[in-house]
């Protein structure tokens, strides 16, 4: 489910060793609100609706992916935006200095995974620069996900 929403989000972007900046109070409060919505699973499952790529995925798969992203959003944001040299997955491009834009993408991704109240609209990038950041962050995150047994088997730390 996470890969599907990232692919969908990347299409919307258009053509276009330092620590990451901390999230603003407003950005943190948005994550807090999303976490409180996510905590009421029965309500989310009963009332919220999904669109686009999310219609192809079961509620629990979407809910679990959203929960992981909500819980780990700060770590994921640091991974996408840190400026140090990558040791693995050299084909992936990080986005240092784009914390605000990447955070917006991640929040929207979690929102789409959970679903929305009827009539509530999906957000889109506010500018060409933000759109390019969404495309690149979605590609980076999709490349970092290990979901198949084969991918996990070939990744240090995931041995079974």
Structural notes for this entry:
This protein has 160 residues and is mainly alpha-helical. The protein has one domain (2-153). It contains 7 helices and no strands. Helix 1 (2-11) packs across helix 5 and helix 1 runs antiparallel to helix 6. The chain is globular, with a radius of gyration of 16 Å.
- Structural category is mainly alpha
Q: How much helix, percentage-wise, in residues?
A: 55-70%
| Fraction in beta strands | under 5%
Taking Cα atoms only, what radius of gyration do you get, to the nearest Å?
16 Å
The tally of strands reads: 0
Overall spatial form: globular
Number of domains: 1
Order of helices and strands: HHHHHHH
Number of helices: 7
What is the CA–CA distance across the termini?
Answer: 23 Å
Reported for the largest beta sheet, the result is: none
Please state the average pLDDT score.
85
Which spans have pLDDT < 50 for at least 5 consecutive residues?
A: 13-18
List keywords for this structure.
160 residues; mainly alpha; 7 helices; 58% helix
Q: What's a concise summary of this model?
A:
The chain has 160 residues and is mainly alpha-helical. It is 58% helix and 0% strand. Residues 13-18 have low confidence and may be disordered.
How do the strands and helices of this protein lay out in sequence?
Elements (H helix, E strand, L loop, with lengths): L1 H10 L13 H15 L1 H7 L11 H23 L17 H16 L13 H17 L4 H5 L7
Helix pairs in contact: 1-5, 1-6, 2-4, 2-5, 4-5, 5-6
